[in-house]
Give the backbone structure.
Amino acid sequence: MQGAASGPGTDQTDSAEQQKNYRYAINTLFTLLEDAYPLKFKRAFPAEEDLNRAKRVWFQSLKEFHPRRIVKAAQKALDTSKFFPDLSDIRELCKLRYDEVGLKEPLQAYYEACYAPVQSRDYHWSHIAVYLAAKQTGWMTLRSEEQRIALPIFERNYEIICNRVLDGEDIEADIFQGLEDTRNKEAVRLADEQAEQALRQQMEKQGIDPDAGRDAFIKMRKQLTGK
């Protein structure tokens, strides 16, 4: 494939290998489309220049997905599409669908993790991904934090692990936690803002000026939120 850049890599060897894998995936994608829809393919890409330009554009749009998933999406498109699939169709087929790989939706998995009687790998989990996401999130977080706080953290970990399942990668590798802390703090901040807004409205209904009666506002907030 001409003009394609490589996906993210940690060194030159990884970058070269990833570039090779993406080249293979994109070329395979277009070969499958050409074999399945020869006339439509020729009309869509009448010249070699058109085909190479399309490969570069499709690569840029699809490089967020694992090369293996791109090939699978192309194969699935041939089985499910009545018409010549375009880039948006392939992108949609690349996205994670939990039920297709025998996984629960995030909220169902979250409840399974929260209410599991044991925290052991040997428990009869619906899928090991639920256990791994719960372990990565932290059992204490799942059991002690409100859903509005714990669910976004669990959901992020679960999605990462489920994507690894789909891509055939190591599902037990550590998950980078830097973004999780940011998400957690942001979730808390938004929840606090919503709670404070509701409290202000409640005080106004009672004829209390939240700004003038700051002491009363703080006292009521402590009573209602414990903060």
